Amino acid sequence: MGSGGPASILVGEAGASRAILPSMANRHGLITGATGTGKTVTLQVIAEGFSGIGVPVFMADVKGDLAGLGKAGSMNNRIQERLTTLGITDFEFSASPVVFWDVFGERGHPVRATVSELGPLLLARLLELNETQTGVLTAVFKVADDQGLLLLDLKDLRALLEYVGANAREFRSGYGNISAATVGAIQRGLLTLDHQGAEEFFGEPALNLDDLLQTGDGGRGIVNILAADRLYRSPRVYSTFLLWILSELFENLPEVGDRDKPVLVFFFDEAHLLFDDAPRSLLEKVEQVVRLVRSKGVGVFFVTQNPLDIPDEILGQLGNRVQHALRAYTPRDQKAVRAAATTFRQNPDLNTEEVITSLGVGEGLVSFLDGKGIPTVVERTLIRPPRSKIGPIEDSERDVIVRGSPLYGHYEKEIDRDSAYERLKKRAEKEGASAPEHAPRRKPPARRRSDTPLEATVKSVLRSAGSQLGREIVRGVLGSIFGGKRR
């Protein structure tokens, strides 16, 4: 790293400082270890380190423990003992600038995407559709594009499915066979998804990725924390949602090449959920995205219990690693420990396999990339304490942070514009037929004053055109990531 570059991210001490070089952070990373061994604190230390050098961070908070990043920590005996052991004398507690997000809008700013932005392939994964059903859903999206029908929320998609199903014979020559049974199966899947709270996720204003890339006072990077305790109850929704954000970053961010620090660092907690029972096509395409998003300046850190949770093709791309303790109570556990030990560049003075089972809480086996991109030999390392609070914060404290955010009031005001549901309803009324009967139209809240109806429509058209190009590009990369061929 050249002089004048951003400071390295100090993670711990092992005779010498163990730090992540910002210029190597887009080579991605891995944090692993059994429950209760210190993964969350390590994630917190790394996240606040990146924030401190002006790099925004995005993470999902599955247990609520990461909210403490928004509040300065306080001294206790364990922290004092660790600081003394590490010889750190200039330690000061401080909060990181945080923005809280929540798909359900309860513990942070609402996070929304339009149905069109999610696209048929990711939506098919959420609905657990088979190949035939995915093909029909893709055809329905094509009908929407061809007829200029905006798909913004779930009632738009339900209305369009009903319209296409009722007129399947007319669409057969141009879009292939669309059976009533298949349309019905998709509709039932949407109903199930709705019961999981997905109705809250689809709509406008949609998430603007620029809002994840901001810096706060003093040039520190904003730490974006997604409240995921409720979302995590639906593992497929959780993992697909995070994959959607990652793919959106890939689609929309420009190529930046090698930089002295990342544009964003993305933490994928409970990463095994992305790969559990995943088809080979999924693994191949996610591998491509992880590799290519590096050129956009995005560093991805996977957080899970064991390196074996991550496919080899992706594991090989994760250059910065922290391994906390694993237990070896059963033959299967012992096999996992041996496998974890082999993922490091070996240290001749360290029995890695033996040490993994004897690490204490807050200790880790650490290997980061050096300035040439070569992994350093693994070292047993004491993780430094975070400067922010360890653990959750009070709901009242969270509410103060949410309401004090510059974004407050924008995402909270839901918009319901003229889209497929309204257009099809008007078309049916004009033709004297019954209008689609679905969830009642939401009461449209007031738009921001700067957006007249004409301006809102123009913005939507421009955004749809731009994101459509991005989706076509990423579909070229993701291909059949969620199964099915276009029909």
Structure description:
This protein is an alpha/beta fold. The protein folds into two domains: 9-111 and 206-402, P-loop containing nucleotide triphosphate hydrolases (Rossmann fold, 3-Layer(aba) Sandwich), CATH 3.40.50; 115-203 and 414-478, no CATH class. It is built from 16 helices and twelve strands. Strands 2-1-12-11-10-3-9-8-4-7-5-6 form a twelve-stranded mixed beta sheet, with helices on both faces. The protein is globular. It starts with 8 loop residues before the first strand and ends in a 9-residue tail after the last helix.
Short description:
This protein is of the alpha/beta class and 487 residues long. It is built from 16 helices and twelve strands.
Q: How many extended strands?
A: 12
Shape field: globular
- End-to-end C-alpha gap: 51 Å
Number of domains: 2
CATH class of the largest domain: Alpha Beta
- Order of strands, main sheet, comes to 2-1-12-11-10-3-9-8-4-7-5-6
Spans of at least 5 consecutive residues whose pLDDT stays below 50 are 439-487
By helix and strand content, what is the structural category?
Answer: alpha/beta
Could you state the order of secondary-structure elements as H and E?
EEEHEHEEHHHHHEHEHHEHEHHEEHHH
In percent, how helical is the residue content? 25-40%
Q: What is the CATH topology classification name of the largest domain?
A: Rossmann fold
CATH superfamily of the largest domain: P-loop containing nucleotide triphosphate hydrolases
Major beta-sheet overview: 12 strands, mixed
